[in-house]
Specification:
The complex is a heterodimer of chains A (612) and B (351). Chain A has 612 residues and is an alpha/beta fold. Chain A is built from 20 helices and 23 strands. A seven-stranded mixed β-sheet of chain A has the order 11-10-12-13-15-14-21, with helices on both faces. A six-stranded mixed β-sheet of chain A has the order 3-4-2-5-6-7. Chain A is globular, with a radius of gyration of 27 Å. Chain B is α/β, with parallel strands linked by helices and 351 residues long. An eight-stranded mixed β-sheet of chain B has the order 2-1-3-4-8-7-13-9, sandwiched between helices. A three-stranded antiparallel β-sheet of chain B has the order 10-12-11. In chain B, helix 1 crosses helix 7 and helix 3 runs parallel beside helix 5. The N and C termini of chain B lie far apart (67 Å). Classes of the chains: A alpha/beta (612), B alpha/beta (351).
Amino acid sequence: MSRPLAAINDFVVKFANVNGSGSASANGLFVKSILRMGVPVAARNIFPSNIQGLPTWYEIRVSGQGWMGRRGGVDLMVAMNPQTWDRDLAEIEAGGYLFYDSTKPMPPEKFRADITVVGVPLTRICNAAYAEPSKRKVLKNIIYLGALTFLLGIERDVVEALLAEEYASKPALIPANIEALSLGFNYASENLRTLGLQLKRADAVGDRIFVDGNTAASLGAVYGGATVCAWYPITPSTSLAEGFIDYCKTLRHDPETGEARYAIVQAEDEIASIGIVVGAGWNGARAFTCTSGPGISLMQEFIGLSYFAEIPAVIFDVQRGGPSTGMPTRTQQSDILSAAYASHGDTKHVLLLPEGPGECFEMGAQAFDLADRLQTMIFVMLDLDMGMNEWLTEPFTWDDSKQLDRGKVMTAEMLDAGADFGRYKDVDGDGIPFRTLPATHPSKGAYFTRGTSRDPYARYSEEGAVYVDNMERLLRKFDTARSLVPAPITRAAKKQTSYGVIYYGSTSPAMDEALAALEAKGLHLDAMRVRAFPFPGEVFDFIARHELVFVVEQNRDAQLRTLLINEGGVDPARLVKVLNYDGSPITARFIGGELARGMGATDMANTGEMAR
Amino acid sequence: MTYIVKPQFHHPSLNKNALGFTRRDYEGRVSTLCAGCGHDSISAAIVQACFEIDLEPHRLAKLSGIGCSSKTPDYFLSASHGFNTVHGRMPSVLTGANLANRELIYLGVSGDGDSASIGLGQFAHVMRRGVNMTYIVENNGVYGLTKGQFSATADKGSKSKKGVVNSDSGIDMVALALQLGATFVGRSFSGDKDQLVPLIKAALTHKGAAFIDVLSPCIAFNNHAGSTKSFDWVREHNEAVNRLDVMLGRAPVTADYAPGELVEVAQHDGSILLLRKVAADYDATDRVKAMAYLQERNAVGEIVTGLLYVDPEADDLHDALNTVPTPLNRLSDAQLTPGSAALAKVNARLR
């Protein structure tokens, strides 16, 4: 028997539930209670593409130090799903804890000797107290919450206060929930001892907010001035559109007339969605769609039109496991290449790579300025992990002096003053031409937009030289984008090192913890978080400064690494792949183990969670 | 003939409309379609209609998909912004453009390949959403640019130029538009300018989704014996249910008609549609009866033309979305960005 794990404010709890059983509400209360005690928490929902009956997990990282990535491993398993009992049991760390419903006796071989087993007869308690099946189903979850409140040292009044808030709109439900909480708490306090894993009130949460990236991105779209949203439901992007609908309702109505300063259309498919976005962008409105990999595939033709006809548009791609339907409710960073080079012909697109909800908000707003400035498609690359899970995040901020950048739009005044308007003319040497909006002027500035080759004055031409001239200008424009997109963020190691690591997106919080753990072992790496494509020059400078650079990604084919090699002419041997793509968010232990191994250290073993 | 620049001069005695524009001000570049193409007649009818309703050319946006018909927006209204989009996807692009600026007039030009095959879905959805637009399908039953394949509107039993008999049922876009909720539905023939021009005028002044199916024979690939989209066939089988005049504003009706022969329909914008009945019991304001009538006549081989249905009180997508009257593309930063105080409240709700 391993020694039972003992930790204060630093452990991993995993709830194994059946979806549709009402567990999400109890698990959410569990997380919020810990946050209210001032202890940082990261929670991740691992769910099936299904409404009722299949296994679902909720993994909670409690970290007084503030590590918000997945750590790897499970210290306490709340095993509420008989279907997944065996694998759930196997996942518990040696010395860890199993919490289960002990109403029905289980044979001893169903347990492990190296863990502490904590049984509470939840069904018996619940059925004794409640006769109605609907109550039994829901309140059983609150009973286990009550038991865990005692076992982990959660402040009971905090949970009760949250229950009251949760049911503020249905106050009749409050007493029943408080009672169920007591049933669980009392059973545990009378029959069990507290666990070695304990919570203690702290002050480490501060004024941080708890929010998912889709919600944050939708709020970013509101602040970025988006007025047209066309979308088609697809997991995991749906809640981004729904977030935009909700925020527009509260923030975007004319206060006097109640009329909407936005238009949202649930389109018939992804092709129509992006068509509406391109039409609105052509006509001067800020417009976006949100989708996931399969939607990006469907939108290819329009993405090429946006690139070639130079029409501002924004796509939020909340990435999931592909290809095809793949793993629609699991996370991946596997649309990087298909977005960067989307469409037929020679195309390249700007990608923004937020690391979590905070940047989802910032980049969600910035994307619209970039789209108008560069007159092209801008991708904001979220993923399911950051998109659908609530992350503890610094509060959103907005500078009221900031003005939206509408880019180069030629006005009637400029036309009347004699400006020589050529829709595709590079007047400033930055590759970005002026555009006019429809109805700008009664007799000047009208032009015909098409996906066919044309000269700087938008006149149809299939002459080779004219075509090449335009394609070269588009490259100059892409170069201009390099200086406008968010710069990478570099963290120098404490000691001089020839090792570097490049990462991006939702890998960020796990990387923070991995780097600290490596440093503690005396393994030093300079780290660079890439935040956009095209890559600014400093990305290649960083690679050049190091003998070996690890590129950590959540896809099979090392897609960002491919982009780095292709765009920067980097020697592939100097870029080492570190890949997690099993659909679960990458863990600090996995990264730490892989990097240590790559640096020749053997004492930091990867937990092997990512099967290959 | 794109190398030919159309001369701008015109005869000084050319008529001017209320805005002082001549018909020439509504023209575009020289057409590159085959000489005698029905589509050029439709372009001419669009020019005439816009001239007659005193439309400011720059207040119209013309959009199209891909194909012979979709090239035509270059050949009319050169003072208007135009957008030659993606095959079969004009409806979605036009929907977005319309959402961005509700003040402009939107004209979508498409063909039977663009709208009845690859674009059938987008056609259906733009009609059912009630996007305020005029949707003209230049219908010749054939793919011209790729040289003579049947399109989805080709009638069953119709023969191709190469002698192949079409075994698939033809799609009747008028029947679809009626079923899908279009609030203005007409059919005409490129060779009947007197019928077509008023229909386009009425569609452009209609608020809501207006659809006109214009039979427009392809002289290169579908104008032979055995085709049901040839000039001869359409002329022989054309049965107009009414004749339309469009009156701008409240002009008194003075013409002499027997009671019941003339129907007056007032539209949102104040224009009056004057319908002279040809088919005595045809009621162009009754959708269900119109659908039944069309099915009956279609069964006996007639091509029913005219203003087939109109709902003069129609709402459009902007009404459904309750959008502000100011075009969305003209809203100020202050109207769009809620500011830091509102953000502080959002933050507070997320703790």
